[in-house]
Write a structure and sequence with these properties.
- By secondary structure, this protein is α/β, with parallel strands linked by helices.
- The chain has 2 helices and 8 strands; from the N terminus they run αββββββββα.
- The protein has an 8-stranded mixed β-sheet, with no helix packed on it.
- The chain is flat and about 80 Å long.
Length: about 150
Amino acid sequence: MKRQLTVEVWVGAFVFMTLVSLAVIAFQVSNFSSWKEKPSYQISGLFNNIGGLKVRAPVKISGVVVGRVVGISVDQKTFQARVSMSVFKEFDDLPIDTSGAILTSGLLGDQYVGLVPGADDEVLKDGDQLDLTQSALVLEDLIGQFLVKFSEGQ
């Protein structure tokens, strides 16, 4: 009887640790980071086409995550997509002429905002807007352009 109780306790402990491990993995995979929130500041940019960009997509410089997309809306004056980004405070020295582009991880991967720092001495502050932006390359548009060019050559 005592041996059976010991086995049941060990099996219960193993099941509990497995569930905790799965929960931690699920939070990491889903980019859930509110429990480790870093101090940040907000910037935004206007894009003609954001493709499949989503809220909480990474903002990267040279492939390194420096922030997250926190909001996507339509600008009421220009009718372009306004992408609001939260950039970590440790990167508060980005020049004001920094440019932003919507890029894709791999051929068909998730989209993210890539920032390319400029050379100006003035830096971005909370609430500033990127002046130089490049919209997403949409695969369907590229295929359509290729088909049009291909059909003209026939």
